[in-house]
Design brief:
mainly alpha
Length: 176
């Protein structure tokens, strides 16, 4: 009888500990950037399932816009203000990864979905972005270091949000 009780008590304790650990919410800046990451990862996965060239073009345009806006947000605000809080090497590498991703996006934008390497380039861009995201989000990564720093990441989140809305308007492709 006592043995059965200990079985029911132990999982409750570990569950409580798990909830407490994940219960620490990310500050607004990190929440916004992570949400962008999840959205783009989802779109890359969705792209893999598409057959039609028009669908591929439309989804790639959404991905490209999201990535352009996201990299601008990180570079203009997040990375810029985290200098001194986050290791320089890490921010420098992230910047180089952004530059390479932008080059890839420009190459893909110059192509059509039926072109020979279009799908391959989108797939590689997706893998590249996923790698970059993992580095930002891993323990000891840019986000973790930023959270330990002095910057007010909730206040920064508000600025990121309004700048994101602004950039979504100005960077969106103008279809006539």
């Amino acid at each position: 009888m006592a043995r059965a009780q200990s079985h029911t008590r132990a999982p409750a304790k570990s569950k409580q500990r798990r909830m407490r650990r994940s219960g620490r919410r990310d500050p607004a800046a990190v929440t916004l950037l992570k949400k962008d990451h999840r959205q783009v990862e989802e779109w890359f996965d969705e792209y893999e399932q598409l057959e039609g060239e028009e669908e591929k073009r439309e989804l790639f345009e959404k991905i490209a816009l999201a990535l352009k806006v996201h990299t601008a947000l990180e570079e203009e605000i997040f990375y810029a203000e985290e200098r001194g809080e986050v290791e320089d090497d890490m921010l420098d590498e992230a910047q180089v990864e952004h530059d390479a991703a932008k080059k890839m996006i420009a190459e893909i934008e110059a192509m059509k979905p039926g072109d020979e390497l279009f799908d391959a380039k989108v797939k590689v861009l997706g893998e590249y972005v996923k790698h970059h995201v993992k580095e930002e989000e891993q323990p000891g990564g840019i986000f973790a270091q930023a959270k330990k720093g002095e910057e007010d990441l909730d206040e920064m989140g508000e600025r990121l949000k309004s700048r994101k809305e602004e950039l979504m308007g100005t960077m969106a492709p103008q279809h006539h």
